[in-house]
Amino acid sequence: MASQHSLHPSALPEPAEYHNVTPDVFVREIEPAYKPAVLKGYAQHWPVVAEAKQSALMVADYLKNENSQQGVKHITLPEHGRMFYSDDMRGMNFSVDNTDISTAISAMLSPDQTRPSCIQSTDVKTHFPALLKSIDNPLVPQIPPHIWIGNALRVAPHFDEAHNIAVVVAGRRRFTLFPPGQIENLYVGQLEYTPAGQPISLVDINEPDLARFPRYEEAFRHGLSAELEPGDAIYIPTPWWHAVESLSPFNVLVNYWWSNRYLSSMLPFPMLMHTLQSLNSMPDSERDAWVAMLSYYMNNNSNNDTKFAHIPKASRGILDDPGQTTHRLIHRWLGSQL
């Protein structure tokens, strides 16, 4: 069995690194690879990044001056900074209050602060409208950004339902990533009650307890890790598992989520929950029959004309090639059933 030290994220290989990424390179090379990629220096020209490279105080003042002073959720964590469950897993180990961004930032920088705090996933358009024109992202130009501000803290491995480009603005951040197929080795916790919306790994990846989580060693064998500086970005395909650690006393990140799931009925996580509810209540033989049916209809995208040749194309309905018309047909049908 490996030691905790040998399984530290800093010992993992780094994702592929790209410089001067253009939309063409992103679409032609990076996205089809379906692996995380570091976009080195991607946002080094952003004015807010230039402020961050001067000092934490300068970028903090910049953000205080540029925000709309609307209220946000301010999260206060334990001294160790790991966002997680309480010991009995019936609650969380952090508290949440409402405050304005300037007050929250002042608290993060206060010399009297004893516990780290953060603002998570805040809409830039609402809270930092003046930033929008200066934080361009030509890879996904129409996608609204979110901002994350906080002290040194750790977020457990989780997945997103959308693709993600995360841009480090201030401080240093470590991203530790695992392929989706490693889910069985990550010891994922509850599905419906989670720290921030998505299920998380119960393994403390900085100090893994291999007696309790022995299969994590296999997950680690497939992992990647990258430590990013201000101006660097990382592309994380959905649903790759990723842990995020803020390594500096004051950190800022801007991220962009996007997908082709423009209807609420297309979100995959609710689909997973409904599938569990339906299939796991069946006897084994009945469940196996429905899994076979699910597999049959899931594999129809590339050979519709062969598989469904017995149905006239104009009459295939939702069995036709995926597209907005087909998706809206399914959406309306689901709405009539639920």
Short description:
With 338 residues, the protein is of the alpha+beta class. Helices cover 28% and strands 22% of the residues.
What does this structure look like?
It comes from Alteromonas halophila. InterPro entries: Cupin_8 (IPR041667), JmjC_dom (IPR003347), RmlC-like_jellyroll (IPR014710). There is one protein chain. The chain has 338 residues and is α+β, with helices and mostly antiparallel strands. It folds into two domains: 254 residues, Jelly Rolls, CATH 2.60.120.650; 74 residues, no CATH class. 28% of the residues lie in helices and 22% in strands. Helix 3 runs antiparallel to helix 4. The mean pLDDT is 92.
Layout of helices and strands:
Blueprint: E1 16-19, H1 23-33, E2 37-40, H2 47-54, H3 56-66, E3 71-76, E4 82-83, E5 95-100, H4 101-109, E6 117-123, H5 124-127, E7 146-150, E8 154-158, E9 163-170, E10 173-178, H6 216-221, E11 224-228, E12 233-236, E13 241-246, E14 251-258, H7 268-279, H8 284-298, H9 304-307, H10 324-337
Parallel strand pairs: 1-2, 4-8
Antiparallel strand pairs: 2-12, 3-5, 3-6, 6-7, 7-14, 8-13, 9-12, 9-14, 10-11, 10-13
Helix pairs in contact: 2-3, 3-4
